[in-house]
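INFO worker-7 received task bundle
INFO bundle size: 2
INFO processing item 0
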Amino acid sequence: MKYASVAPRRRLFVLGTASALAVSVSLASPALAQDADEDADQEQPADSDEVAAEPVAGEIIVSGFRASLSSAQNIKRDSDTFVDAVTAEDIGALPDRSVAETLQRIPGITIGRFEKASDPDRFSVEGTGVIIRGLPFARSELNGRDIFSATGGRELSFNDVSPELLGRVEVFKNVTADMIEGGPSGTVNLVTRKPLDTRGLKLAGTVGINYGDLREEWSPEFSVLGSNTFETGAGSFGIQASYAYSELKSRTDASQVADPCYRAPSLDGPCLRALSVGSGGFVGDSNFDASNFPPAGSVLVPKGAGIRTTDLDRTREAFSGVLQYEDPTGDFVATFQWLRAEASFDTEEFALISRVDDELLFPEARNGTAFEYDANGIFQRGILSQRQGDAYANPFGRGGIPLDSLRFLRALDTTTEDFSFDIKWNITDRFRINFEAQKINSDLTRDSVFGALSTWADVDLDLTGSVPKVQFLAPVGSPADYFSSGLNSYYWFGLDSREKNEGELGSLRFDAEYDISDDGFFKAARFGARWAERDRTTRNTNFSTWGNLSAPWAGRAGCAPWGEGGGCDPNAPGVLVYPDFDPNRRFPDQNTNGFVPGRYFTGLPGQEFALAGGAFVDEFPDFAQYRTPFGDNFQRGNVPLPIENGAAWY
């Protein structure tokens, strides 16, 4: 279970547009109005239709939300399949900061609330992937053509595109034969603005400010758009350019309950599960009957809890350009479009989380306390602890649940660029053709790193309110400076992930349509062909380079390259220990042998003294090389920098 507090965003706008509003009120007798209309009809000449069609001097036409609804309804009415649309008027009127937020307003559409679908620990303020009628596999298009981000999937990252550049967003919940395949749940088509859609000189701009009350910071955004059309004897020409810039600084605070599981009421045994989980697949009683689950009289107790705070800085830029030509008859239209979207996301997180991955360790009530349950045996309030203490549970012998102090950093940069050329030609009043050519380039770089310290603590957990209350307490018998001294914690692990992806796509498409009859059973025939070639490279270590720094259970290595340390003596029981460890992560000269929890690094058994998942050091301190399995310009881990007296910075 997880709960989060997400900073709301408040927007202040200065719109670079002008509008006029006319309100007219008429009071007239219905009977008199009817007579007047009848008299007027009798006095109209034969060409009264033409006269009535002329605009009245001083007439003001007001369009707004009703006009946008009418436009969306027309798109839905004229479509051959199920489609919903959000027009530019809606996008500009709603406080949406991304295309994903715009899409969630369409019936049957939901969006993801995490930064990545595979990472449920970190919330996304703006939302991410699109889910259509419960299915996440949606196809993304730009003006009816392919568009994708180099995220490892086939769809576009909708947070990368500024909604200010769009004319409308269409969501097709079914497909027709002339649509491109590949969207089991549906298709999302982003339609950009074009100059010939609204002729004449058009200038527009927006300025906005976002404020996050948890972050207590302001972030700006603005967009500009200019278009113009030119009428000549050779036809109409249109040109359009637009730019959008947006920043967002947000913070999320979350508390989570870790691994609730069924336990015996006595709490003297591990979790009762129907399937094997955890270290070694331990599930408690080997004669457990999975058909009788949950067991009668059992209670549901979490194994731990955690809290985290996450800051996210998002910067997005989008560029767009359009050139159009239409012949004097309006039967031939050629369009060239360019769109470039750049986005960066910087994440920084701090977390305190109980470690619950070992099934051999299970929480009990702290000495002198008891758990509180509701009528169904579900945990409500209590202090979680572990009373056992040994070199692998808690070397201090005081009990407590393993507690990890995590810091997480992620830097994500994405770029998507699209070039397209389109020709629409009405050869006759019944025969029409369309030709399209497209080129897409997309790349993504995502670097993530974890650092963790670990200690032991009791967890005071209260689930009676709307948000879990979590406090971490020093185990019974601990000194007053248990948390602050640093003597009761150790460097736990380092974990990094590198992702570097590129993708490109080229496509050609030809479609033709012929109207057979206006009244017959077969009204029209359509046919076409499409060629596309996609080349995509995905490189992702996917957090596979877990590096143990000094876990007690892994402390049987540690022979330093200079020949000192507990691991150099095959009969020595411990690891290389540094009781005066520098908080800046420096190796000191002094060391002792023996098992003392905290303040030491371990080596890799049978290998050089190094961090698992980091650089493999051959010599020390006279080294200047490292080995990496990913080739040029793709390094993994941190390379030590030699300093004085055989020390190194990491």
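INFO item 0 finished
INFO processing item 1
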Amino acid sequence: MTQTTDLDLVNLELKARAMRAAYLRGLVSAMFARLRSGKPAHAAA
């Protein structure tokens, strides 16, 4: 068994944040692509 250090936890947290950011970026770009193509979407501010 390996010892889990604080550094390991920080690396995991950074990886999780990067994945979440990439996912959100994908959602936003898909939303903008839909808006640009002229299909009706829910009203954005």
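INFO item 1 finished
INFO post-check item 1: Helices lie at 6-36.
INFO post-check item 1: Residues 6 and 35 are 43 Å apart (CA to CA).
INFO worker-7 idle
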